[in-house]
Amino acid sequence: MDMVRRRAGSLLAVALILALGWTAAVTLSMPNWYDPSEACALKAGGYDDVGTAIVHTRWFPPAASCDFGGGDVRRYMSTTRSVAFSVVGVLILVVLVTGLMLTVRRFASSTPGVVRAADGVNLRRRKVNQLTFGAFDMAVAIAVVTFFNAAAIVFGGLPGGLLFAVASITALSALGVVLDRHLGPLPSTALNSRRRGTVAGATVFGVIFAATALSGQLPFFRLWAVPVGGIAYAVVGFVQWSRVPSKASQAQYSG
After folding, report:
1. Any domain includes 109
2. What pTM, to 2 d.p., does this model score?
3. Nearest-5° angle of CA 150, CA 151, CA 156?
4. How far, in whole angstroms, is CA 49 from its chain's centroid?
5. Relative to the CA of 152, which of 30, 31, 41, 113 has its CA 20 to 30 Å away?
């Protein structure tokens, strides 16, 4: 169990990938999003035979049907496939919730670990590197998030969008942890880096989401989210550096 707890982040990442794959598979098993009526007609044999259809879909248990009027309602997704998706979806949900719980518990109960002192480290250069190169790395990651944001919503619908938001926060937080370990404030511990990195990643996503909402462009992120996210990370990093103890406090902290 200790090993599973230590790998909570990996378990969460795997669960999110599986969940996104599940939403994509369910979406592809339903009438296509750009012309669902045509998809129903083609599956039934063509417009000449059945006419225009009203499509009814449900995410859980996954189901899709085509209503051609006059009581002519036909299943688009087979019962067997719907049951299979339901079972797999429940299993993935269990793994996802477990990963979330273990990750939160790890942050709340982990021991700080070994203190990494600031001895022999040029803190000014380290700070500048985080606020510049670190912000650039975060901006690149946000560019990737922006690109896949549209695909997740188009192919995954509302569930895909929600899962992608969780996955994006997780990925940006993981990147924030890595950047903090290499460029963040000192003295520090592994737990400090995890917490600061998670705060940075979650804050960056929150700023992008809020800015997109205020501009009326949800649910799709725009390219301007890239520089906005990079600047937000630099601001968060600056605030975190401003909370570094004084030299006297550092000596006490490391001693």
Report:
1. no
2. 0.77
3. 105
4. 44
5. 41
